[in-house]
Structure formats: structure tokens, C-alpha cells
Amino acid sequence: MRKICCLFFLLYLFPLKIISQTSEPVFKHYSIADGLPSSQIYQVIQDKQGYLWFGTDHGLVKYNGYEFKIFTSANGLLDNTVFKLFIDNKNRLWMQTFSGQLFFVENDKLISYKYNNKIIELVKNNIPKGFYIDNRENVYFTCGAIGEYKIDTVGNFKKQYSNYINKNFNQIFIDEIDSTHYLTSGYINFNKDIPIQIYLNNLIYSNDTLSRLMNDYGQIFLTRKHDGKLLIILSKYIFEFNNGKMKLLEEFPDYITNTFEDKENNFWVSTYLGLYVCDVGFNKSKRISYLKNEFITGTIQDNENGFWITTLNSGVYYLNSIQIKNYIIKSSELDEPMCINNDKKSIYACFRNGKISQINSDTIKTIWKFPTNSIISHIFCDSLTNKIYFSKIAPGYLFENKYTSIKGSENMSFKGNYILRKNGEIVNATANGIYKIRGDSIYSKYSLSQRANCIFENENSELLIGCNNGIFSLNEISGETKLYNISFKNVRVDDINQIKAIVCIATRGNGLGLIFKNEVKYINESNGLCSNIIHHIVISGNNIWCATYNGLSKIEFLNFEPLRYKITNIGIHEGIPNNEINDLIIVKDTVWIASKTAISYFNQNNDFINKTPPLVHLTSFIINSIDTLKGDDLKLPFSSNNIIINFDALSFKSDGNIFYRYYLVHETDTFTSETNDRHVEFLSLTPGKYTFNVTAKNSSGIWSNATKEIRFVILNPFWKTTWFISISCMLILLVIYFIFKNRIRRIKNEEALKTTFNKQIMLLEIKALRAQMNPHFIFNVINSIQDYISKSDSKSAQRYLTKFAKLIRLILDNSFEGEVLLSEEIKANELYIELEQLRFEDKFDFIFEIDEEIDIDSLIIPSMIIQPFLENAIKHGLRHLDKKGKLKLLISKTKIDLIIIIEDNGIGRHAADEWNKGNLNEHISRGSYITSKRVEAYNKAHNTTIELAIIDLDNGSKGTRVELKIPIKYRNFKGDLI
Q1: How far apart are CA 293 and CA 314, in angstroms?
Q2: Mean predicted lDDT score pLDDT of the chain
Q3: Are residues 84 and 41 in contact, defined by beta-carbon separation less than 8 angstroms?
Q4: Between 826 and 6, whose confidence is greater?
């Protein structure tokens, strides 16, 4: 296939010739090693999105500035040799292959034209020459001698010309579709014995001059210039066509394959043996040639004004600027250029291998050679004597191309720069001191205590010396030096200059220092400088040019008080071959640079800022490692929450030096970041609505006009969906309903049980009341009162009756409360004991003891719980005792319980039972039994534990002790019982 394609181009083109050119811009070369599938590139085109497309011998190639994407037969191409490219009004890329078939790309997928089978039948063995797609998707194509055909949208083929082949003429058929598109057909071989006829839009033109010129074969194509003039290119000639007449504008030494007019109206002519750039008038003296001996197949200018040149054998060349011209140092005779200067006539450059060259009229001529490894650090041209001085070991000067060593300098080494002082002296600062050169001799002027790197005379005629440990001023009377500014102490200074009243200091590591009115300011990388290591500065007007090992920085001062400036960095991206800049001079308006691999020059007023905003595109949306880009407003399931987004910003001049800023907005939260990477990864995103957008900044700091945005939604998991929540709520409500219903049933049962207990407690309390108020007790009390009355002891009767009334009232009051204060309970029981002591005529003593720590007005206990046990002790224990008895009531507490002890020294429970059996008519007290049942019911009703224990003392023959253990309970803050 390669041989066939080469033969195709050879059929149109003449043999090669060479045009010599010594300086040219820097071309970046792309080859198979960079990712191209082939070195044979037939055409390049840029689409509206900014992507570049290349037609090659091994498929279609898409380029984004980072990598090449290749479309071949594996992607649907039936023929991998892609000749012609075209962008339709839908921004779809169409291509024509070697077989004549047409394909187009839509959403990065190759689609075959539906009438390709008919095209193959028509083309057969002819070579296709071009095609066009109109706005209605009608297809026009030409192929060799068969002419031009139109294919409509339903597949009808129609030949565009009704002419017939006339062998008496060399016929050229041209169809002007619009002002920028032409299709040509006809014979490609021009017979010198017959005239040429041009059929343009069905009109016939012939020209005897053209017939005499065209005695060979070559390509035929048309182009219309920006001024509206039509050019016809035949073989190696360019004609201007006007009113049927053809005027020869230019003849080229090589066969023309393509022409192109750039935005500056320069005309680029691609030929078999190189690329030519002509001015608008095709002035031969101003014609520039590039890429000599390269077979150039085409050239375009991209949207950043960069140029892409395709070749038949060497891949692709990219020229991002034609503003910088370079003398590339390729010869083995020259080495790295170390320094550069001029004498207002010529430019002089010194190389690492000791050679001195003179640059004139685009040529580099070696005029002197020092011994090997004789490194020269500075050149100084004395315009008064026309001598060229060199800083080196054993310094000297060149005069009329003859070198003379300075007397007395045989064992000296000059590293610093020469300066011509205002008094006419030429001085140089070295490691040993400051020396003056006069004629052929050198004189020590001042000794120095530190190594000097540079010397400068300021506007006050003061000598400033840059050293490894600062900048020093020299007192020329005493010869002493002192630190010029303390801010530069221990700072290495490599160069000094002055702009207006500002002293400028080139430092190695701190950037550019500015001393103005004893104030020091720095301009460094944080302000936009390309490097903090500066070894040379040049002043031009209000600009400071800084030479560094990372490019060239131009500082343009907009104002001095206050200080305002802007910085432009110039380096590889702008067209300098190498960023390691050794030296810099400005001659008139031209900047000359000595870099590691070239000597370059350009106009200092050129604007190198790439003002074209980068074009941003989202290239893939990867969900859980699956690549997809379905469009906007994506709805993703909850499990698809690991997302990688890839994006591109197209800025070929930036050469990958593009900065991205992206945002991820999730409802009210925003995450933002900046990166040089072209992808971002988000893991385990929570459900909700998201908006992702990204913008980009090119190498000149220009941001894209608009952000690229994609919106997507991560759905809630099924357990958070409306239907699931609704069903779950219904189930929960049902469960709650049954639980609530069951709870109500349980509560009802508990309430019923509690009601039963309460009734039982009430009955027991009533029984207890009745037991306390038994008739026998009341009868005895009344008898005692009557006895006092009969004895006319009214005071005793009244006192007895009063206590009895109080007791009755307390018992009745307490009977209405389930729980009473301990103080109330004690008061009632004390009254009861007093009455019983009166009734039994002091038959027993009563002992009452209570802990001082017990607050009887706060503690509460069940009402009427003590009295029954006191009654039992009196009636069954003490009453039948032969001697005076003792009754004790002891109250104490633990941390959680109130301890109540009722103890007597009566006859005991066994003897009392025997006595009761013999006295059946005697009233039997059941108070203690009822109280024990009441305690049991109380515990169940209140979910508490009152412990009751009845203990016989001394084996049941000497008294009884009752122990009550009641959980401590206090009255609440409102005063209610709790």
C-alpha cells in the first residue's frame, strides 16, 4: 500500500530541488514513536470541537494534544488508507479511502456510507481525488478520469458534466461548489504536444501560455484567497484566474501538493521537497522555506494559530509560532553557545568548545578558534576601538579577526563581565579583584576580599559588585567595600542593572531583587517568574528581560510608584528550542538568545500570550469500572456510586501544560479542587442530585470561556424508596397496632388485677379499722371514762376522752390514705399506747426509740401498719403477764429500707394461744393476720417488697418481736405523697 500511495503522489509531482535556509522556527516532530500508526500522513483537519484528525496509510487518527486515537479496520474501516477528510455542517468527520469508499465519525464511532457498494462499482481501479458533502447530505466525489458524480440521499448517481473526452486537449474539469470548496477531475498527465482546456463551472477556458508551460504531470486544485481572488495551482505553478485569463504568480522548484493562506495573509505552499511561506504578493525575495527535502502533503492553521504540517514519509510537524527564528546548533564543529553580543554590525557568539562565530545575513561563520575547553563566559564589544574582549582564562581581545592576549593576564582568569565606565575606563571584576584594561595591558585597580561574579556602575558612578555572599559597593578612595544592602547578605548575585532609579539584582535562588529608595522587593516564581535562578538581566525601555535555566521572563513595568508590572514567560512552548538560556542581548527591537542548543532571535514587541481559551470536553463517564457517556441527567442506581470522570482541554500550544479546576455540587454542598490530571474519581457517593463541571487554563493563564457540565442523580437504595417506605410504614403500623392492642389487653388485665388487689386492700383496711376499733376496746375505754365520772374525777375523764377522740380522728383520717407520713403514723400509735396504758393501769412501760437521721416529716409508709402489732403485743403478750411488762417500738433505717421493730416481754405466742383456747368468749384480735395479708396485697399492687417477720424470743416463752422492713419512700417536691 505504501508503494501505491507514493506512486500516486509521484504521478503529480516533479523531481526534488533543494533551497538552503539557515534559520527557521522550531518544529515539534510527531512520529510512530509518539503514537502515530504510520509515517505516511495525507491530510490533517481540525473539527469545531478542536480535535485534530489525520488521514494516514494505516487508518484515521484523532489527536487531543495528549495522545493519538487510531481508527482502523478493527473499528469498521474497510480500507485503512485514508486520503481525504471533510467536516460537514453537523461537525461530523467524513473520509475518503484509497478504494473510494466514504465513512464518517459520529460520537467516536465509524459509520460506513450506505452507498459505498455503488461507489466501488463506479470507481473500480481509478484513484479518488476528492469529495464534498452539502447541507442536504448530497455527496459529490471525483475519481481520476471518470469525472465528478453526485449521489443524492436516496442513492441516485448523476454525472455532473455532460462533456465528452476530447483527446485533442489536456482537459481539466473544475466544479466550484462554494467559495472554499472545489472539486477537480480529468486527465492527470499533460501532453506537451496538445493544448490545455479548463472547464470551470461548465465554461471552457484555454491559454497558449499555459499550454507551453505545462509539459509534465502534477496535481490540480483551486483556492480562493481572502481578498476574493481565485488561484489555480497546476503542477509547480500558481496562477491567478480572472475573467477567463490566467496570470502566472509564482513558479516553484518543486511540485505543489497543497496550498494554504494563513490569518496573516501569508501563503503556505506544500511541495515535494519542502514547505514555502510567501507574502501576499508572492514576492520571491521574501519567500521562506522550511523542512527542506521533506515531502509535504498539507498544512493547516489551528484555532490557536499553530501550524500542522503533514508529510508522506516523516509523520507530522507542529509549529506553534513563526515569531521566533533559530539557528539550531547541529554541526559537530560547534558546541553549546555560552555567550552572545554585538558591535552594531554583527552578532558574535562564543561556544563551549572555544569557537567564536559571527552571524550575518542568516549565516553563521566561525572567525576564531581557541584551544579546546577554553570556556568564554562574557563578550564585550568596544565600539570606540572595535575590539571584542573575552572573559576567560588568559583574557584577550579580537581585532580584525586576529586575537591578542592582554599583557599580564597569562595566569589570570576573568569570569565576570566587562563594563565601559563613564570616565572611559574598561574594567572587569574577577576572583582576585577589579582590573582595568588599557590598550594591550591589564592593571590591578582594587583588591577584593570576596569572589566577584559581576560589576556594574550605577547612575551615581558608584561601582556595585555582585558576589556569592551579597552585593557590595566600592569606595574608590579607600578601596574598601561594604555591604550595599543588608537584605542581600549571603545571597548570590550574578548580575546587576538599573531601570530608572531602581537597581535590579539577578540572584541565584531568590528571583529578581529590586532596590528602590532603600526598600527591597522581590519578583520570583510566586509572582509568575519562570525561575528564581537568574544569571543575566537586560534592560530595554520599561522592560526587564531575565535569562534563566528555565526560560526567558519579560517583566513589563506598567507603573513604578506604586510598582505595577506584568510578566510574560517565553520558552519551549513559545518556540525556543531549549529553556536553558546562557545569555541574552537586545539589538534595536530584536532579542537574541544563546540557549543550550541554539541561537534564537525574535522581535521584542511580539506578544507570546496564547489568548485562545482551551476547549474543554468530557470524554468518558466511568461507572463502577464500566465506561459510558450517556448524556446529561443520568439516573444511576444506588450501587453505581463509584464514578470516574475523564476530560480533555484542547490547547496544542500548551503542550500538555494545562491546569484544570472542577466542581462537584451535591444539593447544598460543593466540593472543588484543581489538578493537572485529566480525570477525577469519586468513590461511594451518597444518594442525591449532582452537578459536575470542569474548566481549564492554558499555559499562558487563559481560562476556558465556559465550563463543561454533566448532571446525574444517584438514586436511593430500595429501602429508601417511596414504595418501600410506604409498605414498611404500613407493616410497622400493623405491628404497632397489634403491639398496642396486646399492650392494652395486658394493661386492662393488670388494671383488673390491680382493682382486685385494691379492693382486697380496702377490705383489709376496713377490717384493720374494725379490728382497731373493736367493740371490746371501745367498751373498755367508755367504762374507764364512766369510772372516772363516777369517781367525780372529771379532769381524768375529760383527759381520757380527749385522747380517745384524737385517736379516733387520726385513725379515721389515715384510713382514707393508702400511705401517710411517718410522723402521722407515730402520733397515732403514741395516742393508742397512752390509752392502753391508762386502761391497763400502767401494767407495762412503753419504750420508743428512733434514729436521729430519720426525717419523719418526709418519709412515708403504708397507713395503719404498726398499730395491729402493738395491739397484739399488749393483748396477747403483756396483758396476762404477772409482772410489769415492757413494750418497745424501735425505728431505724438502712440506705434503702426503713426498719420497724415491735418487741414485748410478754408470755409469748405459745402461752397466748393456750390462754385463748380456755377463754373462747374473749374477743379474738385478728389485726396482725389482716395486716400480714394487707402487706402481701400491697406488695403486689405497688410492685414493691415490704418484708414482715415475727420472731419468738427465748424459744417462745419470753416475748415476741415483729420486724417490718419497708422500702424508703419520700414525699415529692409538691408535697404530695409518692
Answers
A1: 11
A2: 84
A3: no
A4: 826
pLDDT of residue 768: 53
What is the spatial order of strands in the sheet that 543-548 belongs to?
Answer: 534-540, 543-548, 551-559, 564-570
Could you tell me the three cell numbers for 886?
415492757
pLDDT tier for residue 816 given thresholds of 50, 70 and 90: low
d(CA 844, CA 884): 5
pLDDT, position 870: 85
For every residue of 95-107, DSSP letters joined together read EEETTS-EEEEET
| Cell, residue 529 | 517568574
Instruction: Name the DSSP class of 490.
Output: T
pLDDT at 8 over 50: no
Q: Give kind and range of the element (H or E) at residue 871.
A: helix 867-872
By C-alpha distance, which of 362, 391, 394, 389 is closest to 377?
391
Q: Is 887 exposed, middle or buried (0-12, 13-18, 19+ CB in 10 A)?
A: buried
Cα–Cα distance for residue pair 903/744, rounded to 1 Å? 47
DSSP 57-72: TTEEEEE-SS-EEEE-
Let me know: does 129 contact 148? Beta carbons within 8 Å.
no
- Using CA atoms, how far residue 550 sits from 335, 531, 580, in Å, is 20, 6, 6
Q: Show Cβ contacts of residue 332 under 8 Å, excluding neighbours closer than 6 positions.
A: none
Cβ-Cβ contacts under 8 Å for 250 (sequence gap 6 or more): 237, 238, 269, 278, 282, 284
pLDDT tens for residues 117-142?
A: 988 888 887 888 889 999 999 999 88
Strand order in the sheet with 28-30: 28-30, 316-319, 307-311, 296-301
Is the model's pLDDT at 246 over the cut of 90? Answer: no
Q: Hey, what's the cell of 272?
A: 515535494
CA distance 617 to 325: 34
Instruction: Give the start-end residues of each E strand in 637-736.
Output: 643-650, 659-666, 669-675, 679-682, 688-697, 708-714
CA distances from 898 to 450, 765, 916, 962, 966 (A): 100, 21, 33, 14, 5
Does residue 344 surpass a pLDDT of 90?
no
DSSP state, residue 706: S
Instruction: Give the mean model confidence (pLDDT) for residues 200-209.
Output: 66
Residue 663: C-alpha distances to residues 182, 319, 618, 675, 713 (Å)? 46, 34, 14, 12, 16
Share above pLDDT 70 across residues of the chain, in percent, rounded to a whole number: 87
Measure the CA–CA gap between 279 and 935, rounded to whole angstroms: 123
Choose among 137, 37, 44: nearest CA to 77.
Answer: 37
Distance CA 66, CA 658 (A): 11
| 131, β-bridge pairs | 141
The contacts found for 620-626 with CB under 8 angstroms, 24 or more apart, are 620/644, 620/645, 620/646, 621/645, 621/646, 621/710, 621/712, 622/646
Helices 794-815 and 822-839: crossing angle in degrees, nearest 10, is: 140
d(CA 100, CA 98): 5
Predicted pLDDT of residue 5: 43
| Residues listed for the chain | 978
Sheet holding 363-369, edge to edge: 337-342, 347-351, 355-360, 363-369
Sheet holding 396-399, edge to edge: 378-382, 387-391, 396-399, 402-405
Instruction: For 32-89, write each residue's pLDDT tens digit.
Output: 999 999 999 999 999 999 999 999 999 999 999 999 999 999 999 988 999 899 999 9
| Cα 219 to Cα 45: distance, rounded to the nearest angstrom | 20
C-alpha 172/C-alpha 295 separation (Å) is: 25
CA angle 472, 475, 481 (to 5 degrees): 35
Q: How far apart are the first and last CA of the chain?
A: 107
